[in-house]
Amino acid sequence: xxxxxxHHLASPIVQPGFLLRLLPGIGLCLAVTxxxxxxxxxxxxxxxxxxxxxxxxxxxxxxxxxxxxxxxxRWHAGIVFxxxxxxxxxxxxxxxxxxTGIILAAGAPLLIGIAGVVATSILVSFGIGRLLGLPVRxxxxxxxxxxxxxxxxxxxxxxxINADSDDVAASIAFTAVLGVVVVFVLPLFxxxxxxxxVAFGTLAGLTVYAVPQVIAAASPVGPLAVQMGMLxxxxxxxMLGPVCLVLSLAVPRLALGVPPKDEFVSDAPTARRINIAHxxxxxxxxFSALLICxxxxxxxxxxxxxxxxxxxxxxxxxxxxxGLGVDIRTVARxxxxxxxAVVLSLLALTGISLTLLATxxxx
Length: 363
Known about the structure:
The chain is an all-alpha fold. It has 17 helices and no strands. The N terminus is likely disordered. It is found in: Cell membrane. Its main location: membrane.
């Protein structure tokens, strides 16, 4: 059930013929990307404006293809590579486009507020899941996935709470589908509320699951929204470490019963071992490093625009791959209680985020 974008690959360097196995999937993603850019150009030619940018169009085309056709084995490696590695490189490159002025403007109150939103959302989402009768582990997965960073949070939290692999797969698949829906709906929501670029970027960073999805959701509002969304989202991602630490300490006190026997659990000590790579992904470190280099003037001004264009292209290719990994039919198979828990948790997170915007007087 898990999305294609979240299958693990062995090290590409040590695999013979790995590049050849990547070509079909990457070629498919590039083809979808080409069509997305062509449709964006057609919008400009017809109405003088792109109502749907290539980022979003690529997801739609990919998801539409996936709904009618399931890519065979020969396509998998390239699609996974595009969705994961190209995406991570794109996020790193975006560090060169972030203005230090935005960071200074954020200030301590917003940083504290982000932590408060994450903590409150986890508690509220967990309560919703339990009220709907979900098992403790499933409720925790949904709460952490919704409140922090979607699939990455689910992957990091799963071994800490001894989660069942079926619950993990269902949570990841559902998050992939709902994440695409949020990318479409949130800009319309922001338009209705009349939010500024800073306010909408903050809202996107607080509510959208994955870093690239924040970019896709914020792009229609403008570069200021993208920059603010990225900063808020990165702070939100960094909350994953403290949350996993708290859960690792709380698990022995939770009524979780006998740990399930699956790949996430081998024995009690290893079940709660925290994977540092999940808590602080390498691309977050890379993004931060490039942001610091930009702040110190180590990135030539002439290089900033080309780096931004490369990042955008890689992101669109990744969006195509993510779309190809989304099976919309997963929602129908998820069950009413899980569906209700995820949707209500997301609505609760949106409400909490809007409360923070009002409290900090972000227009």
